[in-house]
Specification:
The complex is a heterodimer of chains A (388) and B (130). Chain A is an alpha/beta fold. Chain A contains 14 helices and eleven strands. In chain A, helix 4 packs across helix 14. The two termini of chain B are 31 Å apart. Chain B has a five-stranded antiparallel beta sheet with strand order 6-5-4-7-8. Classes of the chains: A alpha/beta (388), B mainly beta (130).
Chain lengths: 388, 130
């Protein structure tokens, strides 16, 4: 297998883009990505992978590969859409990496795009809930948020925490998003505000729930030969992996153990010939504090039952052991459904190039992104290495 | 909900009928098709008692389409006496009545109203044991 690089990245702000269509958003993100590599001829793109989770219902569009390839001026290029709920972006990146690593093409384009604000919240909740085992779970009126809420309550029961123990996760996410001009929520929150926030799906409150919004992000994946033609820090996509678990929470032996999160992280790190201790900066699926805590523990960064304590001690800040959500995470940058996994890598590229400004993690050379579909039914992990 | 889809799942939804392994005695719910290496004989139909306890729960205030009329409503993961962990709504209770470990029993209730021409979907919910 050949080495694979991420040579360009771009994204739109995450927002309620009422004036802009899905195609408008994708076009902006793709042009921003190619603006980073003016020397790269767009005719070298050999494949387009579109990450989109909700398009048939929320954006009234299927066949998203051909549709968005045409929208960005790449009609004729092989194009397909990847759907794995919130893991769509990571799975699309994995596919693109394999296409370049195998030599099938020398440049692949990943587009994550999601349009959710054309319809009301009830439709969005129902569409998101299709990522559960819909006959066994969604039919009961269960939402993804309420599934995370049930895991949070169980975690509190088993490990003796109050709900406010999870406040450090959204507080950190908002503190970082306040410095990110592309974030949905550019303001800080406090633990005190967290305690007073109204319930969404108890024990999850409004300040511990992400908002799903519109946006598009794009990544240009290229062979080593092409990466070496380009100036600046090279970022190698050193390992990618996906893993699966049962969509039905009840079918899992231990619902608090995210098996796919662990498996995909370990395989991706193994492919990069690295260990957990080598990772300097992280992106996780963190729509709620419990999601971040369970992923940190499943991957093995922290012992079971201890992630909230480490977060309270500053472990997830930019100067901590596992800096998390440096652009605001799902909670405050915004949750872009199937595009979130692409946004994650856009941020990690900034970190590895030393371009992250006020939320830069010092001397970040190795980064890991992991996104989850549903409550960890699909997990996609990518490991990136900055090469100077 | 589509009529045929509702009809296919009637045994599970009305009678809490799951499956029991003929070789190990393991009980599971809801019923699943045979996995690789299994046959149609591996699992037999098995009706659950409907008794269990709350493994965890949440009260939903932001409801999906079709469920707005029920909000706020509690949902739970219920650990059934025979072993399976089932997702269901709780009913006939206030949020203060609920805790991890609360004993519950199955009842049949309306699950979702799909509109004037749609099916009225009835199925299992759980309530604190009387």
């Amino acid at each position: 297998m050949n080495n694979v690089y991420v040579v360009g990245a771009g994204a739109t702000p995450v927002a309620e883009h009422y004036e802009r269509s899905l195609a408008d958003l994708a076009s902006q993100a793709v042009r921003a990505a190619f603006a980073q590599v003016p020397g790269l001829d767009t005719r070298r793109v050999g494949a387009v992978y579109v990450a989109n989770a909700l398009g048939e219902i929320m954006a009234s569009q299927s066949q998203m590969g051909a549709y968005l390839a045409a929208a960005v001026g790449l009609s004729g290029v092989p194009a397909l859409r990847v759907e794995a709920a919130g893991a769509s972006g990571g799975v699309a990146l994995h596919q693109a990496a394999q296409a370049v690593a195998s030599g099938a093409c020398e440049v692949a384009l990943v587009i994550g795009a999601e349009k959710v604000t054309d319809r009301l919240d009830g439709a969005l909740e129902a569409t998101l809930a299709l990522a559960t085992d819909s006959e066994a779970e969604a039919l009961q009126g269960v939402t993804l948020t309420s599934q995370w809420a049930m895991l949070m309550r169980r975690y509190m029961h088993e490990h003796g925490y109050a709900a406010e123990a999870f406040a450090p996760f959204p507080v950190n996410a908002h503190a970082n998003a306040a410095k990110n001009p592309q974030a949905l929520y550019r303001f800080g929150i406090s633990a005190d505000k967290y305690r007073k926030a109204g319930q969404i799906a108890s024990p999850l409150n409004m300040l511990d729930c992400s908002s799903v919004a519109d946006g598009a992000a794009a990544l240009i994946i290229a062979s080593e030969g092409i990466a070496r033609e380009l100036p600046g820090t090279r970022v190698r996509l050193a390992g990618t992996a996906i893993a699966s678990d049962t969509p039905a929470l009840g079918a899992r032996r231990d619902p608090l153990d995210l098996l796919a999160a662990r498996a995909s992280a370990h395989v991706a790190l193994g492919r990069a010939h690295l260990g957990l201790g080598d990772v300097h900066v992280l992106e996780l699926s963190d729509p709620h504090g419990i999601a971040a805590a369970l992923a940190l523990e499943a991957i093995g960064f922290y012992e079971r039952g201890s992630a909230p304590r480490h977060a309270a001690d500053g472990a997830i800040t930019t100067s901590g052991r596992t800096p998390l959500a440096t652009a605001g995470g799902f909670k405050a940058r915004g949750d872009i459904a199937g595009a979130s996994g692409v946004y994650q890598v856009v941020e990690l590229l900034r970190q590895l190039r030393g371009e992250a400004g006020p939320t830069q993690v010092g001397d970040a050379r190795v980064a890991m992104a992991q996104c989850l579909g549903g409550v960890g039914s699909t997990a996609a992990t990518s490991v990136l290495i900055g090469e100077s | 909900m589509e009529i045929a889809r509702h009809w296919r799942g009637r045994a599970a939804r009305y009678r809490l009928e799951g499956q029991r392994s003929r070789s190990t005695g393991e009980v599971r719910f809801p019923p699943q098709p045979p996995a690789l290496g299994e046959t149609d004989e591996t699992w037999e139909a098995f009706a659950l008692s409907g008794r269990g306890e709350i493994y965890s729960f949440s009260v939903i205030r932001q409801a999906p389409d079709g469920y707005e009329g029920f909000a706020p409503y509690p949902v739970a993961l219920v650990r059934l006496a025979e072993g399976p962990l089932v997702t269901a709504q709780l009913t006939d209770c206030a949020e203060d009545d609920l805790a991890v470990g609360t004993p519950v029993e199955m009842v049949t209730r309306k699950l979702v109203d799909t509109g004037e021409d749609g099916v009225l979907v009835y199925g299992y919910k759980f309530r604190p044991t009387l």
